[in-house]
Give the backbone structure.
Amino acid sequence: MGIFDSFRRDKHEKPIEDTSRNGEIEIEVEEPVEEAPEEEIPEEEVPDFQEEESTSPYGKGVEMKPIRSYSEKKPVNHVIGTTKVIAIINQKGGVGKSTTAVNLSAALGEMGKQVLLIDLDPQGNATSGLGIEKNQLSHCIYDVLLADTPLVDVIIPDVSQELDLVPATINLAGAEVELVSEMARENRLKDAIGPMRGKYDYIFIDCPPSLGLLTVNSLVAADKLIIPIQTEFYALEGVTKLLESMKRVKNRLNPSLDIFGILLTMYDGRTTLSRQVAAEVRNFFGDQVFETIIPRTVKLSEAPSYGIPITQYDPQGKGAISYVNLAKEVIERG
Ligand SMILES: Nc1ncnc2c1ncn2[C@@H]1O[C@H](COP(=O)(O)OP(=O)(O)O)[C@@H](O)[C@H]1O
Ligand SMILES: [Mg+2]
């Protein structure tokens, strides 16, 4: 038995009794996993079609950004109204959560909105996708959730136009287990975000691919949800479970929680499957589905290796256009 095993047993099992004794809510939480998070992208999901030439090799040309502190943030030159906190959520991996988090945030920033993106996935795809070298970071969202570090102290300002980032590093992998024994463990993120309300138009949370405590924290912290759904086989698989978790949190902790929009991703109009799945999802969710559909395009999968959003990597391409359209729809939905 490894050190981690005994650690997990101690920390994990007792507090579950505690919560029921205190009459706290009991939210079904997926068992924390012991290993480092799996590589979430199965090989077959890597775009493999050839009609778009990749112009440059992966990993080349990456320019990592300096890690500034919030005190160095450029002044905000418009009045911020109500802050909308939106979690980008789906416990399935590889459906386009991080891609949407980065590119929607960046598109809104370029449209003049003040945006904060919180990376809540230990894999830190949103962090690296915005050009932040994770190895250089001394703090991340882990410290906010488990060491009472104020959110403002881990914000990296201006990673893109009008866009700030709360990064995640692999340290966050431990949070799922460590949170179990903490007081008010479901409210950590909500409490941390509180002081930043009024400072941003939008705060997005890029969720991990599970329904564990990190995801529950984002359900408690969020006002609304964006659920990306990949237009593939089993598109709706797991969605019922996600909606149940949403309902449970809504009933007990966050009454105003609701779906902000369902987003169809990785759409390939040439395949009947994509069209059928899109129709099925629209049938199921009605006008909760955004009109904008994100197409499958290799440029969207390349941009993160340059640490820039699609609106900078391929501004005229269909990926950028679709995320700009999505940003407009988000603004329209209020
Ligand atoms: N519209 C798209 N077209 C092509 N590739 C995409 C698209 N959206 C996402 N990808 C790629 O698919 C993989 C999974 O996407 P990602 O956004 O990381 O999903 P999640 O955060 O839900 O796990 C990544 O390699 C990403 O670059
Ligand atoms: Mg992700």
About this structure: Residues 56 and 302 are 9 Å apart (CA to CA). The chain has a mean pLDDT of 87. The radius of gyration is 19 Å.
